[in-house]
Specification:
The structure is a single chain. The protein is mainly beta. The protein folds into 2 domains: 5-92, 2,3-Dihydroxybiphenyl 1,2-Dioxygenase, domain 1; 102-218, 2,3-Dihydroxybiphenyl 1,2-Dioxygenase, domain 1, CATH 3.10.180.10. The chain has 3 helices and 16 strands. The strands form 2 sheets. Strands 8, 9, 10, 11, 12, 13, 14, 15 and 16 form a 9-stranded mixed beta sheet that branches. The longest helix has 12 residues, at 17-28. The radius of gyration is 17 Å and the shape is globular.
């Protein structure tokens, strides 16, 4: 059965949890739910409209990371790893209404709308086949040779982008991407909130949040998730 929803988890070490959550709340204009879990380690970033698709977790140890929840109507909770070692969970469906982009002072809009799987070269073919089979979504060519993406059904909040890294081997990890109608304005907003610019490239800007988590702001349309035709 194909997924009915995707949720991205921002997993922060305990010492960085409050700072990481505060940054991503400001970036996404969300409010924080009540905490849950045996140790109060989980919470949800609640959008102003639509259903939540971003959550946070306080880790016992380890670096900040992103993991994915794949929602299915018939699923029972199960923690899994992809062939390349990426952590994800299968969980039951619940949410169904994708939030719209957030408008910001000055007139531009943005939205977290993509999980990019960063895949070392020797894992790429296996990971690409795994995620296409897991989701049942069509695999399409991306904007560059090293990119492929899975064509999400209407209403799913997150795209899945598969990026082949220059690294010859290693473990698969992930980062979040935002789509923005004005990348420069959105980047300035993030820097004011405490992010650091790592690189400005042709269609995206790479950044790190205040606790060191990597992510990107892209020129893609926040509604469609697609790049404009040159």
């Amino acid at each position: 059965m194909t997924p009915g929803w995707l949720t991205a988890f921002l997993d922060f070490p305990a010492a960085d949890f409050e700072r990481g959550v505060a940054f991503w709340r400001a970036v996404t204009a969300t409010t924080l739910s009540a905490v849950r879990g045996d140790g109060g380690e989980f919470a949800t970033l609640l959008p102003a409209d639509g259903d939540a698709f971003l959550r946070v977790q306080r880790l016992g140890d380890g670096p900040a990371r992103v993991h994915l929840d794949v929602h299915r109507a018939d699923a029972e909770f199960q923690a899994r790893t992809s062939p390349g070692g990426f952590v994800f969970c299968e969980v039951r469906d619940g949410e169904s209404v994708r939030p719209g982009p957030v408008g910001w002072p000055g007139g531009h809009a943005s939205l977290v709308d993509q999980v990019c799987l960063d895949i070392p070269a020797d894992r790429y073919d296996e990971e690409r086949a795994f995620w296409a089979e897991l989701t049942g979504w069509e695999l399409r060519a991306g904007s560059r040779p090293e990119f492929r993406y899975l064509d999400r059904p209407a209403g799913i909040p997150l795209r899945l982008l598969l990026q082949r890294l220059d690294e010859p081997t290693g473990s698969v990890r992930a980062h979040l991407d935002l789509a923005a109608t004005d990348r420069a304005a959105e980047t300035r907003r993030h820097v004011e909130l405490g992010a650091t610019v790592v690189a400005r490239l042709g269609r995206w800007t790479a950044l790190r949040d205040p606790v060191g988590l990597s992510y990107c702001i892209t020129d893609r349309d926040p509604v469609t998730g697609l790049l404009a035709t040159p």
